[in-house]
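A quick aside before the break. I want you to see a complete sequence-to-structure record at least once, exactly as it would be stored in a machine-readable document. Don't worry about memorizing anything.
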Amino acid sequence: MEEYILEMRHISKVYGNGIAANRDVDFNLKKGEIHALVGENGAGKSTLMKILFGMEPPSSGEILLRGEPVRFSSSKDAIAHGIGMVHQHFMLVDELTVAENVVLGYEPKKGLVIDWDKAADMTREVGQKYNLEVEPGLVVGDISVGLKQRVEIVKALLRGAEILILDEPTAVLTPQETRELFAELKHLRDAGHTILFISHKLGE
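That is the input. The structure line, written in tokens, reads:
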């Protein structure tokens, strides 16, 4: 078994205007851990994670997943390899229900039509399995910020995420919601998932 589930080697990202967001970064992740990536705002944390999630190409360097070199040209590539990301600014559609958001782009079909009952069941099952229960029929625009984040996590898990990247996940949460999030992440780790927790808050 490889020591690391994920390795980023000598990653650099230099933009066209000459600004270097990352310079020769090495980053390793072990399976089944909660790993914090800490740095002040503007330090390049989010850029590194966008490279890992296929949202931006690195200027140089390589990524190894389970010991094999990989190159992601899109976030869909990263998702197909078991990597999920919950962004600081949620990617949910407020007008849709929880279940509609969770299965968006991956809708179950019954013949030629979308099977919304199945979508609700899938959402409920993932939530119950990982102690992240959400009500499938609620409209996302009507739920709390903490629940929206939970929907994002369920959405990533439904797509098969084994490695979950959380970008500044507590920035929008109340202290109570933050405590609940930490309990949820420990439960995910105990279920065999690997969590990458990005923050600028040393106390966390």
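Two observations worth writing down. The chain has a mean pLDDT of 92. Residues 175-190 form the longest helix (16 residues). We'll return to this after the break.
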